[in-house]
Write a structure and sequence with these properties.
This protein has 8 helices and 15 strands. By secondary structure, the protein is α+β, with helices and mostly antiparallel strands. The protein folds into 2 domains: 115 residues, Aminotransferase class 4, branched-chain amino acid transferase, N-terminal domain (D-amino Acid Aminotransferase, Chain A, domain 1, 2-Layer Sandwich), CATH 3.30.470.10; 158 residues, D-amino Acid Aminotransferase, subunit A, domain 2 (D-amino Acid Aminotransferase, Chain A, domain 2, Alpha-Beta Barrel), CATH 3.20.10.10. Helix 6 packs across helix 8. It is globular. The two termini are 25 Å apart. The chain binds pyridoxal-5'-phosphate. Pyridoxal-5'-phosphate binds next to helix 6 and strand 13.
Length: 284
């Protein structure tokens, strides 16, 4: 495997960053995960928009132009013969003697890697996945795709230990924010699709954005608003979205079956619509 690190393509095992990189010292950086489907970067422009936004919010200079980033992405994919999986991009404020304040003249660091991955198996899709709910202990700017993911890691580990695949995090008012690496959705008893609006409280998933476009086009009734755990437990359907999961049915929350305990009809229709979107190679 080949990785891109600050201007060089290196064997994965030899690719390293400096111990005083602020990403390592302070989690002072951002990242993107772009799905690759049949050799095409899915919704690449939307991912680059979000990357630029995350950098801007943290006042980290964009290390290079979009066209250069796109060329490097393609080169990393080519060198790794990547057809299906995802591209990981990370940018940090760069290397500087450890001091919380921003360094006067650090050069942002750029790392890119790819990973092969197969889409979810038919069996997994037919079973759906269990999730648990946990308090959301993250900071107040979850809209920034920062590499500071410790609360997410702790929650995902807790989910894993409980036999679940994701944790839905719950804010102080009892409303679900999102999963540790996915957005959370429910379908109410009267067929209204609900997902939390994209404020500072959640990461605005690119899969979420792409799916909302399809939802509008298909005439599905939807509401962008917070929902409680109680509402989720009583929902007809539930699912999660992300670049690596696409649309994944949730069939159990905190040990209780959702709807009839099987993936929902609307959920699977939306998954098909999303898959058709990535098959179409739009947005690149
Ligand atoms: N929410 C969080 C906290 C995430 O980390 C992610 C992705 O990693 C998502 C939502 C889904 O975003 P996307 O659809 O862009 O993968």
């Amino acid at each position: 495997r080949i990785a891109y690190v600050n201007g060089r393509y290196l064997p994965h095992a030899k690719a390293a960053v400096h111990i005083e990189d602020r990403g390592y010292q302070f989690a002072d950086g951002v990242y993107e995960v772009v799905p690759v489907h049949k050799g095409i970067l899915v919704d690449e422009e939307l991912h680059l928009d979000r990357l630029e936004r995350s950098l801007r919010e943290l006042r980290i200079a964009m290390p290079m132009g979009r066209e250069a980033l796109k060329l490097i992405s393609r080169e990393v994919m080519r060198r790794n013969h990547l057809n299906n999986g995802f591209l990981y991009m990370q940018m940090t404020r760069g290397v500087a003697p450890r001091d919380h304040k921003f360094p006067a003249a650090a050069k942002p660091a750029v790392v890119m890697t790819v990973r092969q991955m197969k889409p979810a198996s038919k069996e997994k899709l037919e079973a759906g996945v269990p999730v648990i709910t946990l308090p959301d202990i993250r900071w107040a700017r979850r809209d920034i795709k920062s590499v500071s993911l410790l609360p997410n890691c702790l929650a995902k580990q807790q989910a894993h230990e409980a036999g679940a695949v994701e944790a839905w995090m719950v804010d102080g008012d009892g409303y679900v924010t999102e999963g540790t690496s996915t957005n959370a959705w429910i379908v109410t008893a009267d067929n209204v699709l609900v997902t939390r609006s994209a404020t500072h409280d959640i990461l605005n998933g690119i899969t979420r954005i792409a799916l909302l476009d399809r939802v509008a086009a298909e005439g599905v009734t939807f509401e962008e608003r917070p929902f409680t755990v109680e509402e989720a437990l009583n929902a007809k359907e539930a699912f999660i979205t992300s670049s690596t999961n696409y649309v994944m049915p949730v069939t159990e929350i905190d040990g209780r079956a959702i709807g009839n305990g099987h993936p929902g009809l609307l959920t699977m229709k939306l998954r098909d619509a999303y898959v058709a979107h990535i098959e179409g190679g739009e947005g690149t």
